[in-house]
Amino acid sequence: MGKALGLILWFLTSPLAAQQLEIHFLNVGQGDAAIVQEGGHTAIIDVGPSGISAYLTTFHIDTIDLVVASHPHADHIGGMPELLRSHVVRFYLDNGIPHTTAIYRRTVDAVRASGAQYLNATSRTITLGAAQLHVLAPPPNTTINNGSVGILMEYGQFRALFTGDSEQDELRYWLTSGAIRHVNVLKVAHHGSPNGTSANWIAATKPQAAVISVGAGNSYGHPSSFVIAAWENAGARVYRTDCDGTVFVVANEDGSFVITTDRAEPNGVVRFRPFAQDSAVSPATPVEAVAPACCRVCSAGKACGNSRIARDRQCHKPAGCACNATP
Ligand SMILES: [Zn+2]
Question: 56: CA distance to ligand 1 center in Å?
Fold first, then answer.
């Protein structure tokens, strides 16, 4: 994350530096953690297994308007007690389903001690500056993963979708609810596991960028190469935190956005143009690679199973690698 400050400073000095929505998909190893900022307001959706407080300190974030726990597994809430002790949290939202683990109990205790106002994950809309966070309530009486809280974020024409570790049952439930729309950025459910992606889910969300939050060398086999290929085949540019490090999204209200990553080269920024998301015409893939930085990322990423890329081949897609720069 050492390069993160430089990247943010780049954004602040870029021509796009009007009011914008920022999303940081943090590289927290095997787990999920995302910071969302708009107009001086901050929300956090999952905090990963540990260590998020240091990241917040780096960015001088001391007050958090909203913390969302998608579900009570340690790879999503492990860092929660520490966060609640070290930072001011105004609102805390979870699915309200009790869990038996020690980390869940410590989290509940920390929420009570923090003074944060508790919110249950009913279908509601929460305002974060000029952004709206629509809470997607989980189905009743389901498994822990299928009880994940979903967040559909809207910022003008820009949309992003977070679904924790949802599996097929919950994805179907949301699809039948009619709440799911095309989005610009999507966090792939359940760390890229095959049970967190389906053809119907891809067709309904159709993101321009799909982010997989996953730890290198994890014992679950996440992410699935079939899942990566499915999102890519649907036109999404796939990012994964084990290869790319932290993934930064800076979005404008017209739906345009840029993405760069912790391990990209200094000018390794990909610009995405707004597109008619709900047009009957299938949108072209509006991806313009400014620099072929992701190839270097993959050549260095152990999780990509790639030994070496020749220096004279700037763009190459190693087998099984999420990076999809076109030669
Ligand atoms: Zn998880």
Answer: 21
Q: Is residue 278's pLDDT more than 70?
A: no
Question: How many Cβ atoms are within 10 Å of 131's Cβ, its own excluded?
Answer: 22
How much distance in Å is there from the Cα of 150 to the middle of ligand 1?
13
C-alpha 73 to ligand 1 mean position (Å): 7
Q: What's the rounded Cα separation, in Å, for the pair 7 and 231?
A: 26
CA 311 – ligand 1 centroid, Å = 36
- CATH fold for domain 4-304: Metallo-beta-lactamase; Chain A (3.60.15)
First to last CA, the chain: 28
- What single string gives the DSSP state of each residue in 304-322? GT-----TT------TT--
CA 270/CA 245 separation, integer angstroms: 15
d(CA 131, CA 160): 11
Q: Residue 79 C-alpha to ligand 1 middle, in angstroms? A: 13
Q: How far is the CA of 132 from the centre of ligand 1 (A)?
A: 24
Distance 275 CA to ligand 1 centre (A): 31
CB distance 190 to 196 below 8 Å: yes
pLDDT in tens, 49-72: 998 998 999 889 999 999 999 999
**In the chain, what are the domain boundaries?**
4-304
Q: Locate 309 and state its tokens.
A: 């890329």
Q: Which two tokens stand for residue 28?
A: 């927290």
Q: Length of the chain in residues, anyone?
A: 327
Q: What is the pTM of this model?
A: 0.81
CA of residue 145 to ligand 1 center, whole Å: 8
- Which pLDDT belongs to residue 283? 42
pLDDT tops 70 at residue 272: yes
Q: Does the pLDDT value for residue 275 go beyond 80?
A: no
Strand order in the sheet with 131-136: 125-128, 131-136, 150-155, 158-162, 185-187, 209-212, 237-240
Q: In DSSP terms, which residues pair with 135 in a beta bridge?
A: 151
